[in-house]
Amino acid sequence: MILSDENILKDIFSEDAPKRTIFTLYGVIFMVMFYHALVYFVIDGEKIMARNEIQEYSVGFLENASTISETRVVVDGESEALDFTADENLYDSFNGFGYLKITVSYSETGGFGVGGPCDTVSVDVPPNGASADWQNPSNILAGTSDDCSDINLYIAVFQGYSNSSQTLSGGSPEEIISQWTNNEYGGGTFTININVDATSQNPPPLPQDGDEEVTVTWSAHFFSVVVEEI
Ligand SMILES: [Ca+2]
User: Which CATH code fits 56-229?
Assistant: First the structure.
């Protein structure tokens, strides 16, 4: 059968042909064609568009450490507290505050003579006062040193941040960047408590070591997020 306009018109206006059958046949053909067109343009078309729309991105982080040090003489048997608040300008320059590293260092001073024994220094950071990922298993919130070696503490600040690049599918660069942008994390004041247990070279009545000079270095690691199409 040849489906041409001429035939259709001829059939429709024909006196002889059983019109009902012809119309029914054309109706079925039309519906089958319509169905295929619908499937092609609407259903498959959407799938094809969706496939083309899924864009892959690499998400990376550039870190910047902002460091500040403070030295305090802590009297034997007493506790001193030092505070740290991140500079608000850092939130304007970066997407977020990733983590805070604290280094506590000291050497033997006031030991009355060369080679005096190192004091014992203990520190702890109470998990409050600042907004941080306090439950993160990587956190090191306390430490002790009795050989003049440094104490290194670590506080995860931005929830979920690990500075490992990743690949994402879908979404838009703006959405990904907004996921990694937050100026709440790290807000507030971090505090470190320092305790010194001084160790003297010789027992009394010789002069006793009564304190230690402790330096605390706060290193705030802020990051910028970099999203690239791949
Ligand atoms: Ca000392």
Answer: 2.60.120.380
